[in-house]
Amino acid sequence: MASSQPLRKLNPATGPQNPHDMLPVMLRSVRTDPDTLQRMKDEQVVDIIRDTDAEISKLQALQLRAIADLSVRRRRVPSAASEVALALSITEHRASAIVSAANALIARLPRMLNLMDDGRLDLYRAMKVTDATAWLSGEHVRVVDSTLEDRVPGRNATQVRRAAAYAAAQADPEGAALRNERKLNERRFALHHQDTGVTHMSVNNAPTDKATAAYARIDRAARALKTPEESRTLDQLRADVAIDLLLSGTGGPSERTEVFLHIDLATYLGLNESPATLAGRGPIAASVARQIISGPDTTLRRVLTDPRTGRVIELSPTRYPLTPAHDEFIRVRDRECRQPGCTRPAQSCGVEATRAQGEAGEGGNRPVTYCSRHRKLKGQPGWEYEVTPDGTVTVATPAGGTHSTTPPSIPSGRLRANRGRKKPRR
Fold it and tell me: CA-CA distance, 337 to 395, in Å (whole number)?
């Protein structure tokens, strides 16, 4: 999982240095003395990881400008991608994607390119933005470029993709609905035979709600089969259950699957076209959300939010005590795993007590959702978790950095913020 970029850079213990000047020196030092890194403190090693990533992003921005210039010189013909592929020893498919991204960043998304120049956005995450906005008009893409300027730094690729998709749908809701309809019309079942005697099988462009429910059913059946005597992994069991369902229609019981769809009242009533959010999957078009809501098996729950912040404060009909019903409220409130950068949906997470800021003992703990991976991480040495009164979860790493995430809002264009800073020494 990619960590969030801190708002304030952590300086090495040897004193403040300019990373641009220090990195070449460090490179030469590591080459001549392989034990250099072993002699450094954890926080210094993390600083190097972060600083080198920023420098790589700056170099990628320069490379993209050169690629875009080459594309213009070649009159934007497809052969430009072939030239780039040969120069970089990559496939033409990959080269074509990079050329398209370079042209889009130069002509349509200059603010994203400026973030790369500053070392705050790398090529991989920038391409999430170019992909998500490729269908927008020039007027709409300029709005998205401005909107995302303060939202994408410090967020991982999944969060950047979601932010870009949400902003694009918000800028052109009618276009988003048409795009979703076109994608659904392109749905297909694909089979790709491989050389090793196995085959890749997929369903492309399936409706998100149905695909989520199908996966949940397969996963539930696979986990039921995972006994101590079962040698197959969960991935293997899921694949076998899916094939069995397709061939025989068995493989597991047919049960209703719950997903959390967050939509504001005005959008639900058709008064606006703000995107809705499917927990763990990201934004979806308002028309698609209303279609899901109109399903025969859909159950609506009223969620009260703070009008100032949009954060969940109550799940109808009343607040619940610490019972399984209360756990459901916590999952609705948190929407996803509260580990900074994790997008695991809350209904797949456990609820675990976390130390409240300024409180001592178990009496001050507050319930928070974590996926199984981060529940284990929470108990590892050097990792510290704390919840502030406003629901912000702060995670301190063994290397001395801290990262925080605020509770999600309903409905709001603002994303759950991930922030990082240095952990104060004790």
Answer: 13
More confident residue, 236 or 29: 236
**Confidence (pTM):** 0.69
% of residues, the chain, pLDDT over 70? 78
- Distance in angstroms between the alpha carbons of the first and the last residue of the chain: 28
Q: Check pLDDT > 90 for residue 138.
A: yes
Task: Give the pLDDT band of residue 296 (cuts 50, 70, 90).
Answer: low
Query: And the tokens for 187?
Result: 């749905």
Angle formed by the axes of helices 157-171 and 173-185, nearest 10°: 110
What amino acid is encoded at 52 in this protein?
T
Cα-based angle 254, 299, 319 (whole degrees, multiple of 5)? 120
Report helix, strand or coil for 131.
helix
- What distances in angstroms separate CA 221 from CA 44, 230, 247, 248, 250, one per listed residue? 46, 13, 16, 15, 10
Q: Cα–Cα distance between 416 and 418 in angstroms, integer?
A: 7
Q: Which pLDDT tens digit goes with each residue over 4-28?
A: 333 333 333 344 456 556 777 888 8
pLDDT digits (tens, 9 = 90+) for 327-377: 777 888 888 899 998 888 888 898 888 888 776 655 567 889 999 989 999
DSSP 3-state percent helix, strand, coil across the chain (nearest 5): 45, 15, 40
Concatenate the DSSP letters of all residues of 17-41 into one string.
--HHHHHHHHHHHHHH-TTTGGGS-
Task: Return the bridge partners of 201, or none.
Answer: 191
DSSP state of 266: H
Bridge partners (DSSP) of residue 384 are 396
Q: How far apart are CA 35 and CA 30, in angstroms?
A: 7
Q: How far apart are CA 242 and CA 251, in angstroms?
A: 7
What region does 154 belong to: left with phi over 0, alpha with psi -120 to 50, or beta?
left
Q: With contact defined as beta carbons under 8 Å apart, do 396 and 423 qualify?
A: yes
> Is the backbone of residue 187 left (phi > 0), alpha (psi -120 to 50) or beta?
beta
Mean pLDDT of 93-103: 96
